[in-house]
Amino acid sequence: MENTRRSIVNSTFNKICDDCVFKNMRLTFLIIFGLISSLLEPVIFAQTRDGQQLVTAELISDAVNTEKPFAVGIRFTLQPEWYLYWKNPGDAGLPIEVQWELPPGWKAGDVQLPTPSKFVHGDITAFGYKDEVVLLTTVIPARDSKGPIKARLNWLVCRESCLRGGKTVTIDISKRTSDQRIQDSSLLSAFRSKLPGAQKESGVAIQKSRLSRTGEQWTLNISLVGGVATEVEDFYPEVVDGLVMDLQRISVLKGELTIGFVRQSESIHTANLRGLLVTTDSAFEFQIPVQFSSQ
């Protein structure tokens, strides 16, 4: 068992080192120390600090029955100032992991994440959620198959230090009360409204783009036009294989988006930068093609 835990620690450490660029050694140490400490403990799920549970998790749904596809939410509630990570955690961290355990023949759609907040601590930038967040999915049931829905969740929660946590959560639609469905419906609706819109809904297009290089640093300048282009205030990138985003070199000024990054291999000739164009009160998915072959 001890060897298994140490193997998990090594695997987790390697994943972080592969996926993240650490710019602050103190934060790096806190994250890795928190992971090692929690993973070497027999139970990693009792995330408490000063007698308080840092993260609570549950499944919610407003479905009356399971005769047709229905919405399920994964609800996290956090203690003040603690936060969980988005699909791209930023300069350090790990995204929330979800593994479904469904009745025979049932399927779950992609997990949809609300627009995250951006947290900046010195030269570290992170994307995530404070206080409360509900991740959404659609479950497609199968005929003549019933039973509870389960999800195995894993996360990293951080403030001044970081702790690894996880829980298996369950919901049985047939046992939900009317009051529970009403409450869940309100929560699902609230967080559904926080999902980013599709790219076409933004009306934004790329007028022109320019790619330049200084040593190992690449800079992409993009002129945005149409739709909400003049309202865009930031860009939250997703993780892109082979490119390491310099999150402090992402800026937007009067419709001009600037993105800085490092290309990890000269063999990478094309890439698609996916992420969110963020305005004051909304966000939209956006994709930016990048061509290196002429550089």
General description of the model:
With 295 residues, the protein is an alpha+beta fold. It has 2 domains: 2-192, Immunoglobulin-like, CATH 2.60.40.1250; 199-291, Immunoglobulins (Immunoglobulin-like). Helices cover 18% and strands 46% of the residues. It has 4 helices and 19 strands. The protein has helices at 2-19, 25-40, 178-192, 199-202; strands spanning 48-49, 52-53, 55-60, 70-78, 83-90, 97-101, 107-108, 117-121, 124-130, 132-140, 149-158, 162-171, 205-214, 217-225, 234-237, 243-253, 256-263, 270-278, 283-291. Strands 3-4-10-7 form a 4-stranded antiparallel sheet, with helices on one face. Helix 1 packs antiparallel against helix 2 (25-40). The longest helix is centred in the N-terminal third of the chain and has 18 residues, at 2-19. The protein starts with a helix and ends with a strand. The relative contact order is 0.14. Mean pLDDT is 87; it is low at 1-30 and 32-44.
Task: List descriptors.
single chain; 295 residues; alpha+beta; Immunoglobulin-like; 4-stranded antiparallel sheet; 4 helices; 19 strands; 46% strand; globular
List the helices and strands and how they pair.
Elements: H1 2-19, H2 25-40, E1 48-49, E2 52-53, E3 55-60, E4 70-78, E5 83-90, E6 97-101, E7 107-108, E8 117-121, E9 124-130, E10 132-140, E11 149-158, E12 162-171, H3 178-192, H4 199-202, E13 205-214, E14 217-225, E15 234-237, E16 243-253, E17 256-263, E18 270-278, E19 283-291
Antiparallel strand pairs: 1-2, 3-4, 4-10, 5-9, 6-11, 7-10, 8-9, 11-12, 13-14, 14-17, 15-18, 16-17, 18-19
Helix pairs in contact: 1-2
